[in-house]
TrEMBL record:
Domain Terminase large subunit-like ATPase: 7-177
InterPro entries (UniProt xref): P-loop_NTPase, TerL_ATPase, TerL_nuclease, Terminase_largesu-like
Residue ranges annotated for the Terminase large subunit-like endonuclease domain, each copy included: 189-443
Gene Ontology MF terms: endonuclease activity
Protein name: Terminase large subunit
Domain of life assignment: Bacteria
Organism: Salmonella typhimurium
Length: 447
């Protein structure tokens, strides 16, 4: 019986397979990440995608894998794909598919489709790799091995589809962050397609009206009555609340909530802002330093009074990071961080300095140059590891002010920044690193 694709499935499939390069006519996206609650038809759509890449994608000797951490999970995609072939003789005859007990192959060109468990090791040359329930993976070994093995393929496809999980330190949540960074524009990636079905921050998970928002297949493969009963059980039993939130609303219950609203932040973006517009106007020049491995930053902040209210302007922030953090794999085990930094370097918004540490003399020279454009009224600086630069700033009459990052010093400024963003009194030039930093701020309430 044919499967009729629902609108959300059509959208994902059309984007993944219909968006092609004008010159080569090859697919734009090499990675597709879909995050969706249970019982919304993940396995069926993944099985169809895998079969298409196996038999219909004009890739000689295509290798297609259904990868997972356990044999049972790997078969969740391979089993329906195998069943589709067994029940559709026209398909197997048209494409010469042999259906075996634990794999499928095409003798004509040696193409094969099989389940894959755990760490596969090197040697494979996947044309398509389906990773089902990626949240169950403790490491990115399988995902990375599959992705790096695709170099010989013309238009390979890494297809990950998952429900939310609990491990926010795992590779799935890391990929989720990458998707969000791509979607909000802070770290562009033209080869990644991602879509996440969940409730909005601030939604009441006990409200029946949120069920449709997170479950696009409601009424088709998952029924509203079932979800309502699960929701009621979770409301009555605290032990079931997190299970319901994670599996049926796609909420990572261990994930920390961002303090600032990124939608509001993006509405404050004004790419027309330039330093020339503020030439000669006093500015606050703030610093956040980390000599080894981490990123160092310098931010300019201008203020103007408009209709009796203070407006803030963040223009031309600067960021530095050591070379080893970006390019020396053995010194940076966080591959995702390195890739993020590399993209920012390519965009010209992140400066790489030699070695394993940032030389603060670079930052001092930038501060002196900033003072020539706009007189620096004060230079807030975190004292941790910044004694030398603080003295140098004082010698240049840049008025360093020590700001210890604690509740007393940070509470009121965070509240004012939030209010300014929400009311449109904050303006920024759209720097992607600044957007990423804002998205990482987590508020902690002190009793």
């Amino acid at each position: 019986m044919p499967i009729t694709l629902e609108p959300w499935q059509l959208f994902v499939i059309c984007c993944a397979f219909g968006w092609v390069n004008k010159g080569t006519r090859l697919r734009r996206f090499r990675e597709v990440y879909t995050e969706i609650p249970r019982k919304n038809g993940k396995s069926a759509i993944s099985a169809g995608v895998a079969l298409y890449c196996f038999a219909c994608d004009n890739e000689f000797g295509a290798e297609v894998y259904s990868g997972a951490t356990t044999e049972k999970q790997a078969w969740e995609v391979f089993r329906p794909a195998r069943l589709m072939c067994k029940r559709t003789p026209m398909l197997t005859e048209a494409f010469g598919i042999e259906v075996n007990a634990s794999n499928m192959n095409r003798p004509e060109d040696g193409a094969r489709f099989e389940p894959l468990i755990g760490n596969p090791g090197d040697g494979s040359s996947p044309h398509c790799a389906v990773v089902d329930e990626y949240h169950e993976h403790a490491t990115d070994a399988l995902y990375t091995t599959m992705l790096t093995g695709m170099g010989a393929r013309r238009q390979p496809l890494m297809w990950a589809i998952t429900t939310a999980g609990y491990n926010i330190e795992g590779p799935c949540y890391d990929k989720r962050r990458e998707v969000i960074e791509m979607l909000n524009g802070s770290v562009p990636n033209d080869e990644l397609f991602g879509i996440i079905y969940t409730v909005d921050e601030g939604d009441d998970w006990t409200n029946p009206q949120v069920l449709e928002k997170a479950n696009p297949n409601i009424g088709v493969s998952v029924y509203r009555e079932f979800l309502l009963s699960q929701q009621q059980r979770a409301k009555n039993n605290a032990r079931l609340a997190n299970v319901f939130k994670t599996k049926h609303l796609n909420i990572w219950v261990s994930a920390r909530s961002a303090y600032f609203n990124l939608v509001s932040w993006q509405s404050c973006e004004d790419k027309s802002l330039t330093l020339e517009q503020f030439e000669g106007q006093p500015c606050i020049l703030a610093f956040d330093l980390a000599r080894k491995l981490d990123m160092n930053s310098m931010a300019r902040l201008y203020t103007r009074e408009i209709d009796g209210k203070t407006h803030y302007y963040s223009v031309a922030p600067r960021f530095w990071v050591p070379y080893d953090t970006v390019y020396s794999v053995e010194k940076n085990e966080d591959r995702r961080t390195a890739e993020r930094f590399q993209k920012w370097v390519e965009m010209g918004v992140l400066t790489v300095t030699d070695g394993a540490e940032v030389d603060y003399r670079y930052i001092l020279e930038e501060a002196k140059a900033a003072n020539k454009i706009s007189p620096v009224s004060e230079s807030p600086i975190d004292p941790f590891g910044a004694t030398g630069l603080s003295h140098d700033l004082a010698d240049e009459d840049l008025n360093p002010i020590t700001i210890i990052q604690n509740y007393t010093n940070m509470s009121d400024p965070m509240k004012e920044l939030e209010a300014a963003i929400e009311s449109g009194r904050f303006h920024h030039d759209g720097n992607p690193i600044m957007t990423w930093c804002i998205g990482n701020v987590v508020g902690k309430t002190i009793p």
